[in-house]
Write a structure and sequence with these properties.
The complex is a heterodimer of chains A (94) and B (298). With 94 residues, chain A is mainly alpha-helical. Chain A contains four helices and no strands. In chain A, helix 2 runs antiparallel to helix 3 and helix 3 packs antiparallel against helix 4. The longest helix of chain A has 25 residues. Chain A is globular and about 45 Å long. The mean pLDDT of chain A is 93. About 11% of the residues of chain B have low confidence. Chain B contains twelve helices and five strands. In chain B, 52% of the residues lie in helices and 13% in strands. The chains are: A mainly alpha (94), B alpha+beta (298).
Chain lengths: 94, 298
């Protein structure tokens, strides 16, 4: 457990701005969903924006870190879109 | 037993058998998740077209709404409400009027009031009230949202009401397929207790109508399957779907934590995305899913 916390701290400290940016985007995403509760189209737009931000964040972060690779971009896209399609059913249950 | 442990390690822990990345996070597995997610969407659409699950009704049902409403009232020792077909008809009329005139409010664009619908249904009221909700996934979410709002809560827990009627109606509102819930409360103008309190206490009158005086207004809460409930039902389909999603998210997050932990412990250098950001992303989405299944009330 200590090892996990130690490495998390190192990772967050090393890229504090990037993680803070993502955290802010996440909070905005949740606030947006809460504000537009029941508005299905807007909920989907907010979800799509957050998924897009996540993929762009991944590309941006790995460019800054000088570790960008097609495999990494693909990883973000696959996770992002898998979750997008799963949640879409809850937004448009028809 | 050793084989089971080995398999679990293979899926969750980075080691030589999985090229030092948890197998559940490999690209081939991520591709499978995406394909399964797409198939879910297509499959659900297909099931709706073939009639196995309903077009766009969610898991909100009149029966559940009625049970939950009376359960909340009984918690503070209020009388259970009787289901009233006239109020239910008024609620249905109100929902259909909102779809027809494209509004989402207690009052219509031409000044239509909820009371008009109640009176038009033939229910003469002494007290009446209305709660509205739209696009909720589950009945308990609707009642919880009403309870969380002071005005709706006051309406739901008003002691004067004796009757209630519900309508769960699907239609197009503002260009979107929408599920509306209308809850109408009332107390009839000449309810039995009103008549009792207004009647002069003469022996002659009581003798003429003894049943009026003796009949209590409060009825026990009905919990059996009720004949009036013709709400489209999906047999908890969306509840199961939500649970499957949450289990999937939990497994993925668990794999990400273990992968991060062992990669850090073994000082592995890999061409991979950031586990911490994947973890945060899935976490936000999981919380978001619980907001999405909540609709809005007015």
């Amino acid at each position: 457990m200590n090892t996990l916390v130690k490495h998390l701290k190192i990772e967050v400290k090393k890229h504090a701005f990037d993680y803070l940016l993502f955290l802010t985007a996440g909070v905005v995403f949740l606030m947006g969903l809460n504000i537009f509760r029941g508005e299905r189209l807007l909920e989907f737009i907010i979800l799509l924006s957050f998924v897009s931000f996540y993929i762009i964040w991944g590309i941006y972060h790995h460019i800054i870190e000088d570790s960008l690779h097609l495999k990494i971009v693909l990883e973000y896209i696959l996770i992002g879109f898998a979750i997008l399609f799963l949640i879409k059913v809850l937004i448009f249950p028809f | 037993m050793k084989q089971i442990i080995d398999t679990v390690h293979h899926f969750f822990v980075p080691r030589h058998t999985n090229n030092f990345t948890a197998k559940l996070l490999h690209h081939d597995f991520l591709t499978i998740y995406l394909i399964v997610a797409i198939l879910f969407g297509v499959g659900i659409k297909h099931m709706q077209q073939t009639g196995n699950i309903l077009g766009y009704a969610t898991d909100v049902t009149v029966q559940k709404l009625y049970e939950l409403t009376n359960a909340e009232r009984s918690k503070i020792n209020l009388n259970g409400l009787n289901y009233n077909d006239e109020l239910a008809a008024a609620a249905k009329q109100k929902a259909e009027d909102m779809f027809a005139k494209d509004y989402w409010s207690h009052y219509g664009p031409a000044g239509e009031t909820p009371w008009q619908f109640i009176l038009a249904s033939g229910y003469q009221y002494e007290y009446a009230g209305e709660n509205l909700a739209k696009n909720f996934m589950f009945s308990d979410g609707v009642v919880k949202a009403w309870l969380d709002s002071t005005t709706h809560r006051d309406n739901l827990l008003r002691s004067e009401y004796t009757d209630v009627g519900f309508a769960v109606v699907n239609g197009i509102l503002n260009g979107e397929e929408t599920t509306l819930v209308v809850q109408m409360f009332g107390k009839p103008l000449y309810s039995k207790d009103t008549v009792a309190s207004q009647r002069p206490k003469s022996e002659t009158v009581v003798a003429q109508k003894p049943d009026v005086v003796e009949q209590p207004v409060a009825k026990p809460i009905v919990s059996e399957v009720l004949a009036y409930d013709n709400t489209p039902q999906n047999n908890n389909f969306f509840s199961t779907y939500l649970n499957i999603n949450m289990v999937f998210f939990a497994i993925l997050m668990f794999a990400l934590i273990l992968d991060f932990y062992f990669a850090a412990k073994l000082n592995l250098i890999r061409v991979r995305g950031k586990n911490l950001i994947h973890f945060m992303f899935i976490g936000f989405i999981a919380i978001g899913a619980f907001i999405i299944i909540q609709g809005s009330i007015t």
